């Protein structure tokens, strides 16, 4: 159950970060409303708070989170940008997830 909760929390964290970065992108590159910066800031604050909810050391959490972020960003590419991931996108995302699993779930003495 710990593993499922960790991965779900990382996935939620990744979505918060991507939304927090995507909304300013829409404002800057797609000529959308500057008001998008308000929910973007809230989303980035949520992202930072979510990272603090993990019981592991901060450096380990940040390193492992990167793997989930890569995978979620590839899903975003497909679901939001409408670009089907290539085989190499999927392989790279899978390798990143395996790295996250090794970092977070390997047996430790301390």
Shape: flat
How many strand units?
0
How far apart are the first and last residues' alpha carbons, in Å?
Answer: 21 Å
User: Uncertain spans, ≥5 residues at pLDDT below 50?
Assistant: none
- Rg to the nearest angstrom? 15 Å
The overall average pLDDT, rounded, is 93
Percentage beta strand: under 5%
Q: Output the helix-strand order.
A: HHHH
Mind summarizing the main beta sheet? none
Task: Please tell me the total number of domains.
Answer: 1
Number of helices, where a helix is a run of at least 4 consecutive DSSP H or I residues:
4
Determine the structural class based on helices, strands and strand pairing: mainly alpha
* Helical content class: over 70%
Keywords:
110 residues; mainly alpha
Describe the protein in words.
The protein is mainly alpha-helical and 110 residues long. It has one domain (2-105). It is 76% helix and 0% strand. It contains 4 helices and no strands. It has helices at residues 2-29, 37-51, 58-79, 87-105. Helix 3 (58-79) packs antiparallel against helix 4. 20% of the residues are buried. The mean pLDDT is 93.
């Amino acid at each position: 159950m710990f593993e499922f909760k960790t991965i779900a929390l990382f996935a939620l964290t990744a979505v918060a970060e991507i939304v927090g970065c995507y909304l300013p992108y829409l404002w800057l590159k797609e000529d959308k409303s500057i008001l998008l910066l308000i929910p973007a800031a809230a989303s980035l604050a949520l992202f930072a708070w979510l990272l603090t909810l993990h019981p592991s050391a901060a450096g380990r959490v940040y390193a492992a989170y990167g793997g989930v972020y890569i995978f979620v960003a590839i899903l975003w590419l497909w679901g939001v940008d409408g670009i089907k991931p290539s085989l190499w996108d999927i392989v790279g995302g899978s390798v990143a997830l395996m790295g996250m699993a090794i970092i977070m779930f390997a047996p430790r003495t301390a």
